[in-house]
Task: structure prediction
Amino acid sequence: MKRKLIKYLFIGLTVLTLTGCGSIVDDSLVDRDEYDVEEDDDDEGEDDEEKEDEDEEVTEEKTSESKLILSRDTTSDIFYVASESGENIDQITRKDLAENISASDSKLYRVDAQEQYLQSALACEGDGFFFFKDSNYYDETGEYVYLVYAVSADDHKLYPIWEDRENHYIEACDYYDGCLYVDYNLGYDYDTDRTLGVKEVCYEYDPSSDSFIEKESEYASVIEEINSKGIRILGSRCAGWDNVDSYTRDFKECGYVLANTGEGYAVINEKGISLDIPGTENVYISFYAPGYIFYDDSNYDGNRATVYVYDINAGNEKAIASDVESTVFLGRDGSKMYYLTGSYEEYGITHNRIYAYNTENGENNLVYEAKSVPGVGLAYPGAEGFKVSNDRIYMVDFEDGDLKWFSADVSDGKAEFKDIYCLEQHVDLFDYGTVTYASYSHACPNCGTLLDLRYAECFVLDDKYSEHADTINAYMYENMMTFVDDNTLEAEGYIGSECADHQANPTWYRVTDDWTVTGVGIIDDKYLTVNMGGYWYGGGAHGYPSRNQYLFDLETGEEKSIGDFYTGTEKQFKELVAEKTRDYYLSLDPNSNPFYTDDEDIIYSDAYENVYLEDGNIEYLEDGIIYYYPPYLMGPYAAGYIDIFIPYSELLGRASL
Result:
């Protein structure tokens, strides 16, 4: 079956807009010597010092009782709740947490009608509660609703906490020191060209009323003062991109919050004193620690980056990693900031190195390394689900066909991961065989700039499933090698261009193309299905995806197509798929329409014109086929593939293939 790949070159421009009204440094700003983010300038006497000691003891006590949520991402179906020692781990699912939500609340809180599980993003956990955040188009009022709510881990009772209908999207939802903090954006005033800033609300569970009661944030006045200057403050992402600190946590633990001034960044301490950070006009910062800020400066043209740490009190920066292809900040643990640098020894095989930078002594320690595994492209090596606390790291990794959780004590600076027997996902394609790969890179013969990069995978069937496994495997191998064949150089037109252009803007002249195994199955003990997915990029705002499914007869080793099963005419096939496409549209919520139009007759006619019996846009299931429309064919790129299910009973007149 021929692989279908439609390639378009989209030229676009991504613009990062930094809002604000200029520098926040004014006549009231004290000298750098007076700005100390790690010290408290309060001189109220010994009583206050004793009170601080007591507070520290209370905080330490709470910290020792705290737990970690092990969640691969905010939308995972399974959560593991672990003690920070790693000795006790409990499992809970979204279905568990949704079981007591009433039918009247199910739409507002997005409880899936069939599967009965919460679809909201998990934000945090604490003191026996799971906290979720969401934005939901609510038909009852015809508006978006922004929500934060809790579900008890014990009896799965729902607790409404915060609700907003004014498009004040949530920036952070953080359970800290016995309280839930919700930080949200107030929007932008286009008349004055100023950000309206942010707001923080605080809630504490009240056992007597069995509800969450709002309290005033300790830093409400400081935040309001910052807002009045027309600048934005940003919480640190100390635990990765999915988890943003509340402003209160950052004030308490770091001694300051970061602010975007529109002309770079500044730090603002809990007294409202601000200090500009020079040289940050063209970088994006969101990770910081007591006394230090971390960021990377990426050269997108050269696909290289440098990682910097900035000492706030000293007012200088230093590079801690340079000439790397990618960087990801993973999390903060005390004085250690964990980050990742990525590289390719060969195109398609990611090699990640995870470091810990210690702000106390300036040591930059390589903790562990991880490489991608062919066939497991759904997992980013060494970083999936990364959590760190008290010198213990948790992450999801692949082993023996499973994605599962591993843990390591890193108090000595090195990680020896151990299986903690918490399954995240079984990768069932490895039940049927293995996956191999081929990589191809072509460079300009004159200047060495990489112009064409390709990566392809090949499924290798275990011979226990078919006497003709060798035939099937040879066919799949030939497909892989054809994909990376250097005789089909896509960037050939760039070779004759100037080497000065190649070297100045290497990514502008580069074409990348990936083709990976995404799934394997057996239908009726007779047919093998091998699903493939691809992504081509040749510049512009985004690339173009592709997909295909190979179908083999295990009894003969032959590849099959729809023509081997369907006995109707081309016209009958087009009419059936078009009718099912219209039925699919009519079944949708109007707010989730993926088609270009909302006219059902036009959808039918467009489908009829675009459907072909032998075009390869078919995937076989146990009980029917999926006929899929690629992006742009029936809907915009953002809609992705549009899948239409047709049961065999309607297609073939029988229940199975």
The CA atoms of residues 529 and 551 lie 5 Å apart. The radius of gyration is 28 Å. The longest strand covers residues 511-523. Residues 1-31, 39-52, 54-65 have pLDDT under 50 and may be disordered.
